[in-house]
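Morning. Coffee machine broken again, so started the prediction first thing and wrote up yesterday's gels while waiting. Chain of 65 residues, entered below exactly as on the submission form.
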Amino acid sequence: MDRSDEKIICEKCQLPLAKAKTTLMYQGIKFDAELLRCPKCEQTFVPEDLALGKMHELEIEMEDK
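Came back before lunch.
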């Protein structure tokens, strides 16, 4: 099965997550991303590849300034 077809369920609400525009903030800088989010409690799922890839690179770049 392709991971993009995999349904991720909110642990708290037991509902499938849906793609939603999400505003992320790091050290006062906001940026938008489309991430999976629970339609009820709005808990957002940040995939490992994003957290360890692009977000980690942004953290390093921001801390160097």
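The mean pLDDT is 82. Going to sketch it on the whiteboard this afternoon.
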